[in-house]
Design a protein that fits this description.
single chain, 232 residues, alpha/beta, 4-stranded antiparallel sheet, 3-stranded parallel sheet, 10 helices, 43% helix, 15% strand
Amino acid sequence: FLRGSALSPDDLERVQLHRCVMAFVFPGVDCADVVREDKQNMLRALEMQRHCPGLRLRLMLLESGSEQRALALGVPRTRFFTATGIKASILAQSSRVKGLTPLVAGLLQVTPKQEFERFLAGRRPGSWRHEYAGGAHKQIFGFAVGGPRSASLLVGVPFAAAAVKLYKETGCAVMLIAAQSEGRLMLNYEGELQEGQVVIAIARSLLDIIPFKDPTQDWRDIFLSRRAEVLS
């Protein structure tokens, strides 16, 4: 977070903006005047780009009508996105994929055990509440492919087939959703999994993925180093 003003070259130099891997300009979502907020953030983004021409920057706009203003001011189309566009995409995907919104919400928040107990109190087994609670208990985990059971189950296997095999092998406890390729995280990766490759999975607990992860490496270090190779 920048302490100071993004319109001040001295402040940008003080925070060493030139060493930033990527900069984000986010608006105040509770502001009184969204048009004014977007205009001010466009100026901040332009000043940051002028100060560091090679800066990788992303600007979030509140209103879709601000897109044309950003283009007219010289902000490249690939450098900004709108909050209204994100909302529309979520709405569209929710209509296509049943349960998408509860899935995302469940993965991004931690629900205490006591709250689940109150949620299920007095409900018979097999009701939709039990099914929902079972899914909401799961979390997102990352790991590097390795371990005693990965060689035959995951390594050299296409991602889709590996996801099915792992799902069945763990009794529906682990579901692969993404893999890192060329420094980027790819949902429904189309290639074959390799030893040491970083993957992301939905699982009930870390214990479920231990047999398939490389215990000698931290997947976060691998992920960041491979991403840095692409960005450099």
